[in-house]
Amino acid sequence: MKSRIVLAVALGALATGTGAQAQQGRAQATEKRLYCWDEGGRRVCGDALPAHAVDAARTELSIRSGRPLAQVDEAMSPEERAAAAEAARQAEVAAAAEAARLRRERAMAESYETEEDLRKAFDDRIVLVDEALKTSDMGVANLRQSLVSLLRQANDLELQGQPVGKRLVESIRSQHHDLLRQQAIRRQQLKERASLDAELEHAVERYHALRGPARR
Questions:
Q1: What is the layout of strands, in order, in the sheet containing 58-62?
Q2: Which candidate, 40, 37, 70, places its Cα nearest to that of 54?
Q3: Mean pLDDT of the region 70-76
Q4: Which stretch is the leader sequence (predicted)?
């Protein structure tokens, strides 16, 4: 019986405290205020906020006690709001990308029973890139040889004092363009090949971190 009385008293005190806090909050919200803001390099205070100072940073004080009631930051300009929105969007995109990366790593850890299985999966990708590189190497060699042949034809004509025909000039330009394009493709494939090695090592590291002790 005594414990019930104690509990009732405690609950009553809690309810009284909560009600007092709510009343205090309402009183603070309706309390008359003094607004202070900077204007032209000097501090200005008043019991009303003029229209031109609505967006200014200000301190709101109780007229009765003088204690601070609120601190309002300066309103952002349209450019600042746009920059803040863009920063928030980028943060959201980065968070989504990080979440997707974690899901991929978790799926990887669950998909491969052993490290050897993981390495075999990467080996299949590496073989494909290596085969593509071989094809690009042959393509670059053939295009270079064809371009050299066309340049020799043009050189021979000039040495004989004959004009280099428009068709030959166009062929040289086209062949040179194709060679540059194939070389760019090969450079991209080399980057992909190098990134695969780094990606494999990272995947193995993450695999062990997620799966625990190494399984071979």
A1: 42-46, 33-39, 58-62, 68-72
A2: 37
A3: 74
A4: 1-22
Read off the pLDDT of each residue in 13-27 and give the average, rounded to a whole number: 50
Q: How many CA atoms lie within 13 A of 73 on its CB side?
A: 3
| Nearest C-alpha neighbor of 216 from the set 127, 150, 136, 119 | 119
Q: What is the pLDDT of residue 13?
A: 46
Contact 123, 176 (CB under 8 A): no
Contacts of 4 (CB under 8 A, 6+ apart): none
31, 60 contact by CB (below 8 A): no
Integer Cα distance of 176 and 198 in angstroms: 34
Which of these, 124, 143, 128, 115, lies nearest to 216 by C-alpha position? 115
String of b and e for 160-170 (b: at least 16 CB within 10 Å)?
eeeeeeeeeee
Three-state SS string over 52-84 comes to HHCCCCEEEEECCCCCEEEEECCCCCHHHHHHH
- Its pTM surpasses 0.90: no
| Residue in the block written with tokens 């669950």 | 110
Q: Which residue has the tokens 């280099």?
A: 164
3-state secondary structure of 109: helix
Which residue type, as a one-letter code, is found at position 28? Answer: Q
Place of tokens 């060699």: 141
Rounded mean pLDDT of 73-97?
Answer: 75
Q: How far is CA 185 from CA 128, 129, 163, 189, in A?
A: 15, 12, 35, 6
